[in-house]
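Today's session is about reading a structure prediction critically. Students often jump straight to the picture, but the first step is always the sequence itself: look for stretches that repeat, for charged clusters, for runs of hydrophobic residues. Only then move on to the predicted structure, which in these notes is written as discrete structure tokens rather than atom positions. Here is the chain we will use throughout the hour.
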Amino acid sequence: MEENIKKELARLKITRFFQEPILSRMNLTRTLPDGSIKKIISYQISIKRREEKIKEASLLDGICCFVTNHTEKKGKRFLFPAEKVIYGYRNKRKIEDAFKHLKSFLKIRPFWVNLDEHVRAVYTISVVAYFLNLYLARMRSGYEGIDLLNSKNLYQPFKNSQLVRFKDEGFGWVRERIINPEPDDLKVIRQLGFEHLLDKKRSQRITEKN
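Below is the predicted structure for this chain, in token form.
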């Protein structure tokens, strides 16, 4: 328990506000069903606050501070003034949130890359996937009035469908078709502008049947 307390304080980054936990031995007794008394040795943990440290830190409550090592100057002006540093950090948070969102729907294996072209390739795949996902969410929201950006139901209409590509080597033409769509999903597929990929005869039969 003592180690758990220390780990939790470290995780919350507030170790400096508390003294070391004090472990005290306690002698307890318990009356058993047969009336006998059982002695139990247990321990109590107490931890005291460092009030001066807490009071000192509270002076910065509500203040957001950015620290940078960019001290380069051009004449009397900083190359990276305060406004530029703050703007950069604010945008960094947006990028981090975007990548967290990206991991929620893009199923790819981890990448460990070092070369510039490999980094650019991973970055490009991620950004394109992010914008496609955002575009699809906004399209569905416009038709259905529901925000599905962070929902698992965003791709539900395509769960049982497959995009098949037909290629004729002799004539050189390529055709793509969505096959096996669910009847309830045809409306969404049409709304998103993918009707040209449907088998028109089959989709018409499904629509008439329903």
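Discussion point for the tutorial: Helices lie at 2-11, 51-58, 82-105, 116-144, 186-191, 200-209.
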